[in-house]
């Protein structure tokens, strides 16, 4: 029986291993983590992450061929294949601060593997890492090998949160990079055999290590670039009276461009896009390619511009001040169908409103109060630390309150900001919301989920990203 151990029971490790266990009954899968609480949650009825379909998959195989454990050393030493899916935060100090990845956790995982191993192992990079990390890991392992053979593979994960289970069940492609030696090829084949239980062979791509690592960074950079491109166009639409949804539809109809990932928004978030582009920028700079670095950096700058522009629209519309005014924030997760808030644009928007002394009331169907307070108190780049190293609950900010539903959040508010595209925000009783708000009542739709005309008919002043401006806003330029 093949034994797999995955270090890191997070958004990537947890769902990926659940699907491997489900699809490969003959493989034993153990997910280990240094966080005792996280493992306890994986073993309970309340899983530590919200992901549609995950509960079912875990329930079907937990206790059979899927285990969650804190006994890291035991399970690593027994495994044939060790996946590593630990945090790779952006460095906050020293060489490469603000761009390069901090590989502390990766390096300690590699040293631990070398320390406890008694048999040959395939070590799989699942975390997104800078190009040539595998080489560094290989050096740590071989310099401490005690005669054991290690093969390093890069097997980047392409799942998106909220659709992780579908993405894992039916991936566009699985990418496996390995050394081009007989042992390397054998290791690639061993991992390929695992995926071949459910993924058609022509979707399992094999390549060299560096190409696999770089493909992951490039794929995320291309996706993020599409969003920044349409967001750039959204600003132009607002200035000229065009409608960004119409433009995106017309552009996406070209089969060379395609219709997906062209929704203008308040900005992209999530644990990957910004971090991966920063990695790409850093690698380009290190190779003396400043034109390439600047090109990709612009994708992040456009995203920051979009978030600032949104805050400025809110403040400018309300007579240039939100001081002491209640603003309802609907949605805090970085996208719908997840409780994840890493790099969510909601943090920047809320911080921007708080800087202007607003009082905010936040409602999100999946994000806890503790998480929101923590996020608003956390400095940039500190979110990507292992959970147990993050600060305990900070003292709640008194200008921030958490509401149990959208109606409570909006009660007595001057404005409503929609920051996550949760389906329930499309179905709200906006007349009821309007009646309970201060007048004039504003809606700022950062996700284009409402119909501006319907809301205007109720009496709202509506701002929607990239849509023709309300006459109220026309003479209020809000360039970031
Ligand atoms: C993680 C990384 O953050 C990301 O950079 C990488 O691309 C994929 O793996 P994700 O699963 O979304 O992504 O992160 P997270 O939910 O934070 O999970 C990482 C887990 O690793 C945490 O549960 C943490 O406790 C654990 N961990 C971290 C260890 O078990 N050992 C360590 O030394 C460090
Ligand atoms: C992304 C990649 O899609 C995935 O392949 C990779 O493995 C990890 O990073 P994820 O961050 O989970 O996945 O979600 P994704 O659906 O890509 O959304 C990222 C951000 O972009 C979200 O904030 C989302 O709201 C935003 N977005 C997405 C837009 O603003 N407009 C769009 O058209 C699409």
Automatic annotation (TrEMBL):
It holds the Pfam family UDPG_MGDP_dh. The keyword Oxidoreductase applies. Its EC number is 1.1.1.22. One of its GO terms (cellular component) is nucleus. Pathway: Nucleotide-sugar biosynthesis; UDP-alpha-D-glucuronate biosynthesis; UDP-alpha-D-glucuronate from UDP-alpha-D-glucose: step 1/1. One of its GO terms (molecular function) is UDP-glucose 6-dehydrogenase activity. SMART domains: UDPG_MGDP_dh_C (SM00984). Keywords: NAD, Oxidoreductase. NAD(+) binds at residues 8-13, 33, 38, 86-90, 127-128, 161, 342. InterPro entries: 6-PGluconate_DH-like_C_sf, NAD(P)-bd_dom_sf, UDP-Glc/GDP-Man, UDP-Glc/GDP-Man_DH_C, UDP-Glc/GDP-Man_DH_C_sf, UDP-Glc/GDP-Man_DH_dimer, UDP-Glc/GDP-Man_DH_N, UDPglc_DH_euk. Residues 328-452 form the UDP-glucose/GDP-mannose dehydrogenase C-terminal domain. It catalyses: UDP-alpha-D-glucose + 2 NAD(+) + H2O = UDP-alpha-D-glucuronate + 2 NADH + 3 H(+). GO terms for biological process: glycosaminoglycan biosynthetic process; UDP-glucuronate biosynthetic process. The keyword Oxidoreductase applies. Belongs to the UDP-glucose/GDP-mannose dehydrogenase family. Involved in the biosynthesis of UDP-glucuronic acid (UDP-GlcA), providing nucleotide sugars for cell-wall polymers. This is UDP-glucose 6-dehydrogenase.
């Amino acid at each position: 029986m093949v034994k797999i151990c995955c270090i890191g029971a997070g958004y990537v490790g947890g769902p990926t291993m659940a699907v491997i266990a489900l699809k490969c009954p003959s493989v034993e899968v153990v997910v280990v983590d240094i966080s005792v609480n996280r493992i306890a949650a994986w073993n309970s009825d309340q899983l530590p992450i919200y992901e549609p379909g995950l509960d079912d998959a875990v329930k079907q195989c937990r206790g059979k061929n899927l285990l969650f454990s804190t006994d890291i050393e035991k399970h690593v030493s027994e495994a044939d294949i060790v996946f590593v899916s630990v945090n790779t935060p952006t460095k906050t100090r020293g060489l490469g601060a603000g761009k390069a990845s901090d590989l502390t956790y990766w390096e300690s995982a590699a040293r631990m593997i070398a320390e406890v191993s008694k048999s040959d192992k395939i070590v799989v990079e699942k975390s997104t890492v800078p190009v040539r990390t595998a080489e560094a890991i290989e050096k740590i392992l071989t310099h401490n090998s005690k005669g054991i053979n290690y093969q390093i593979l890069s097997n980047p994960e392409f799942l998106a949160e909220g659709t992780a289970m579908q993405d894992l069940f039916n991936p566009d492609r699985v990418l496996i990079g390995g050394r081009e030696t007989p042992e390397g090829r054998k290791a690639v084949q061993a991992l390929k055999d695992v995926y071949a239980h459910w993924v058609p062979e022509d979707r399992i791509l094999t390549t060299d290590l560096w190409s696999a690592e770089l493909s992951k960074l490039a794929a995320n950079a291309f996706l993020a670039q599409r969003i920044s491109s349409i967001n750039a166009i959204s600003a132009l639409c607002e200035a000229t009276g065009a409608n960004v949804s119409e433009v995106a539809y017309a552009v996406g109809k070209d089969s060379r461009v395609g219709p997906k990932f062209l929704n203008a928004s308040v900005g992209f978030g999530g644990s990957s896009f910004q971090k991966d582009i920063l990695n790409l920028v850093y690698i380009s700079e290190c190779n003396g390619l400043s034109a390439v670095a600047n090109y990709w950096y612009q994708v992040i700058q456009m995203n920051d511009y979009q978030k600032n522009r949104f805050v400025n629209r809110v403040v400018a519309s309300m007579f240039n001040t939100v001081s002491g005014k209640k603003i309802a924030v609907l949605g805090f997760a970085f996208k719908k169908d997840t409780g994840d808030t890493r790099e969510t644009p909601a943090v920047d928007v809320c911080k921007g409103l708080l800087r202007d002394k607003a009082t905010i009331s936040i409602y999100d169907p999946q994000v806890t109060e503790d998480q929101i307070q923590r996020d608003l108190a956390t400095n940039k780049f500190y979110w990507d630390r292992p959970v147990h190293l993050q600060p305990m609950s900070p003292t709640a900010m008194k200008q921030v309150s958490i509401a149990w539903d959208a109606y409570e959040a909006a009660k007595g508010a001057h404005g409503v900001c929609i920051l996550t595209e949760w389906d329930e925000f499309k179905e709200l009783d906006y007349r009821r919301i309007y009646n309970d708000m201060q007048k004039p009542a504003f809606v700022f739709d950062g996700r284009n989920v409402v119909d501006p005309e319907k809301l205007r008919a109720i009496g709202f002043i509506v701002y929607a990203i990239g849509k023709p401006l309300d006459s109220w806003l026309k003479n209020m330029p809000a360039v970031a």
